[in-house]
Amino acid sequence: MKITLYILFVFFEVSLFGQIDVKNFDYSKADSIALNFPKGKYKSYTEFIFPLTDSLKTDHEKFRAIFRWITDNIIYSYSNRTSNPDKVVKKGKAVCGGYASLLEVMCRSVGIKCIIVEGYSKTKISDINKTFKNSDHGWNAVKLHENWYLVDVTWASGYLDSKTRKFVKNYNNSYFLTDPDFFYLKHFPKDKSLFLTENKVKMRNFKRSPIFHDGIIDDNIIEILPKRGIIKIRLKSPLTLKIKSNDHLSSFGISLNNNKKVYIPDVLFINDYYLVQQKFEKPGVYSMTIFANGHAIATYKLKIKKNWP
Length: 309
Description:
The protein is an alpha+beta fold. The chain contains ten helices and 17 strands. It folds into two domains: 25-209, C8orf32 fold (Roll); 218-305, Sandwich (Immunoglobulin-like). Strands 9, 11, 13, 16 and 17 form a five-stranded mixed sheet that branches. Strands 5-4-3-8 form a four-stranded antiparallel sheet. Strands 10-12-15-14 form a four-stranded antiparallel sheet.
């Protein structure tokens, strides 16, 4: 009787896999295991991979525990550029290649298919119109219940402070099973077959686009115009942006060169778009960041001249 019930339970559980929303699943159990897992001087991931995942029944929960263990225990550091997973575990430090390779082998150990994807990333204003020659970043694609998902365990772990150049540990769930449409705003795979979406981005559009921020997700923004990351305007002529969102946006702000001063632009709502307009008082070349509902959503290079030829 017990065997029959077990078989029925397994059949029922498997039959539901196609319906599970793995992105919005309640991962509290997997997170608790990963974040409370005994700290130690491990020499290899093989020492703890099974104790970390054995009590979890589904692949997506096991993957979550692995993902969260890495984000909680590995620090981004240029001092350890190896992609050897055991050396990453032993030192507790890595760059993107080390993060991605560790995630791959830990998944493989528990029967989860996970691959490394090499490509290009956009994170700063100097990346706008940059010529991408060599891969500068690595991330992963993971297969869960017959579907492929994109993750960036490096960016999920935290960020480098632009002023101190020190790593700030700060978990970012935006890069766990990320919506491809957002993911490819900041990532471009070297192997185009690894886009994992029908909406494939062209390299020229990726190169010339602005720098997008996580506020795109927070505010459910689906379009920002202009699409080019470099904007030229005449002095005292209004800058005009068009922003479309599936959510209500109650406030906007603009900052130049990350200064504390925040411009509060004029805003109109016309034909499902927010028209954001602002005039500036000084010519120059600026890094301009747009905020909506208090979240940074995009950064442009703004060129203001008294007169354009």
